[in-house]
Amino acid sequence: MSLLHIPKVSAGQRDRPALAQPVLSEAFAETAWDAAVLGFVLASLPAGQRPVLWVQDRLSRKETGGPSLAGMRMTRPLIMVSLSRAADLLWAMEEGLRCQALGAVIGEIWGDPAALDFTATKRLALRSEAVAVPCWLIRRAASPNLSAARDRWRIAACPSAQHPQDALAPGAPRWAVDLFRSRQSKPGAWIATYDRAADRVDLVAATGDRTLDAADGAARQRATG
Amino acid sequence: MVLARAAQHGPVVHATNRVARLAGVMPGSRVVDMRAICPDMQVAYADQAADRAALDRLVLWARRWCPWTVRDGDDGIILDTTGADHLLGGEAAMLIEMETQLSLLGLTSRLAVAPTWGAAWALARYGSVRAICAADQVAVKLGALPVTGLRLDGQTVLLLRRLGLKTIGALIDVPRLSLTRRFARAALAANPVLRLDQALGNLAEPVSSVDAAPRFVVQTRLAEPIFDPTPYLPALCADLCDLLHQAGQGCRRLYLTIYRTDGDVSHLDVATSAPSRDPVHLHSLFRDRLDRINPGFGFDLISLEAGDPAQMQGIQTNLTGGSDDDLHLSQLLDRLTARFGDRAVTRPILRASHIPERAEACLPALATPPALMPVPANERPIRLLDHPEEIRVLYAVPEGPPAQFQWRRQTHRVVRYNGPERIAPEWWKDRPGTRLRDYFKVEDQAGRRLWLYREGLHEDGRDGDPRWFVHGMFA
Questions:
Q1: Stretch 371-410 of chain B: residues touching chain A, C-beta under 8 Å
Q2: Is the separation of the CB atoms in B25 and B33 below 8 Å?
Q3: N or C: less crowded end of chain B, CB within 10 Å?
């Protein structure tokens, strides 16, 4: 009977996901307009001063706006490409992944275009690994269908940490991240926080205290309300 | 009609047409004064930089008559026609030919031939029409002209007038010793002795001709009309890069011109972010763009020209011969811009403004970004909507953000908030009546963080009750 035993975790997989790897990762936004997914993606980019190529399609731009340089506090240069067709967007990302001078390639795609099939993601994944530049696909209003992405995340906003000075104010952001498919590590769900000073993403296991978190702020309703 | 230019005390007349000159309008005098003389005078501002550029082009155009030409001030061209006049049938015939050609361009000209630069300058402006002056007649011909013909500044001309020296002849007659004593330390433009020596040929004033920028063009003539230029492009690019390499130059632009058999011409141009002479890279910029050419009945001549040539040294960046990151990046920007256009590929930069939508600007990716960018002082959202979206307030509170609001058909309950941060309109840019904004960072029941603002205040006397908008999202 031991032949039928299929291990849940294959031999090479790690327990914790390693961020900032030069692979293709997909991040699905729980709410289409929410910026939590961007916060997590930006936090997990490798440090450095190499420029970032940011490719955005027209619908993402219209529905969720453009990346704001002032809010991202990014010291490295940013190259924006705004396109309307998904095929062009994938071409631009592939072209960017030929270039070793980039720090990362980020693409934002709205919905499930026909051009973004398994072959397209496989091309991106192979390119990204060949040139050792991390590549992120940010998917909004999309369904997690067939893809060759090495890591697939589902990311939602989470009530923020307590503000050190003001109990009524939102503090440091926290994100509920769910790694639901991965080639290199065990899938799992975590609460992620970002430590800017150390440039480190901390993953804390989400062990059932999410309900407690949700009530956290509600108890402090304003007296004026 | 006069052209004006800005001066220290208001506009002055830069140039006039014939009618205005006859009415008594003098170049160099104030426009307001001249309007008193001639009330129905029309004034337009002169574009002096463009005039100078046009004159520079005319200098090169004038090379058809002689090889040495140079621009002289803002309103003249000097041609060194020594040994060139007999080709045009003598000096008189040459002047007529020049005047005809210039008038075909729509230009009025006053021409003169003289042995020296200074003498030609004076004769062209103050001498007879198409004056010709032989080498032994310079002193005689110049003698009758006013001293303004010596290229002196206004102060010196005034001084000479007060001394009673009205013509160049009178100046020649003054003993040289006393003139030298008077103007020993004066600069060239204020020194009549040196100017006189230049005009009479005692002091050399050579014509240093400017070189035209070299053109880099390669062509392919085809034996019979074809429809697809793709197979010929690699060879053309390689030839052009050879030419550029020999001249030590690289190009920022490429113009592909295709001459069709039916006489039509189509153009295609691409740009690069850094000077380049790499044939493979330049060829790759044309990829996918050649299908925009309408071949018609085929074409028989393809020409490829390099634009914006710039000095480019072959520099080895490191000893191992590894790849150069900057080069790779600029080539990526070239490829993206060539395919999607200038407006799609941009480089966002920060600007000094408190209004969030003005704090950011987009430069074309091929432009060089500024070295120093302002750092925002306060916390800003990671995402900014292009147009703020109005929300419906369900449950307002007297101060702070609404406790409940509806945005994009969803109800959000504000659990925690931070603010307000008041941003006043920029009075030097905004229209009067623009309302101030109070920004709040709010967190809703699901932990999503939004950036709301209230436009205006209650009872601020501007445009009714304040309205609420969503402007961005925090991480």
A1: 376, 379-386, 395, 397-400, 403, 408
A2: no
A3: N
Map tokens 């011909």 to a residue: B141
Q: Please state the ipTM of this predicted complex.
A: 0.84
Residue-wise pLDDT tens digits, B399-448: 888 999 999 999 999 999 998 999 999 999 888 888 999 999 999 999 99
Strands B68-72 and B76-80, by their bridges, are antiparallel
A17 in reach of chain B (CB within 8 A): no
Q: Chain A window 50-79: which residues touch B at a Cβ cutoff of 8 Å?
A: 50-51, 53, 61-62, 64-72, 77-79
Structure-token pair, residue B185: 């330390």
* CA dist., res. B280 & res. B284, Å (int): 6
Q: Which of A71, A88, A163 sits opposite B380 (nearest CB)?
A: A71
B217-313+324-338 placed in CATH 3.10.129.10: no
Amino acid (one-letter) located at B252: R
Separation of alpha carbons B383 and A155, rounded Å: 16
**Which chain B residue shows the shortest CA-CA distance from A221?**
B415
Check: CB of residue A220 under 8 Å from CB of residue A168. Answer: yes
Helices A86-96 and A118-131 meet at what angle, rounded to 10?
20
**A18-218 adopts what CATH topology?**
Rossmann fold (3.40.50)
Q: Map out the domains of chain B as residue ranges.
A: 2-38, 49-200, 217-313+324-338, 383-473
Residue B184: count of CB within 10 angstroms of its CB: 9
Spatial CA neighbour of B107 closest among B67, B150, B61, B43: B61
Q: How far apart, in whole angstroms, are the C-alpha atoms of residue A92 and residue B311?
A: 30
Which of A70, A100, A168 is closest, CB to CB, to B325?
A: A100
B382 to A67: CB separation less than 8 angstroms, yes or no: yes
Q: What is the pLDDT of residues B237-288, one digit of tens each?
A: 999 999 888 888 888 888 988 888 888 888 888 888 778 888 888 888 888 7
Q: What's the gap in Å between the CA of B278 and the closest CA on chain A?
A: 16
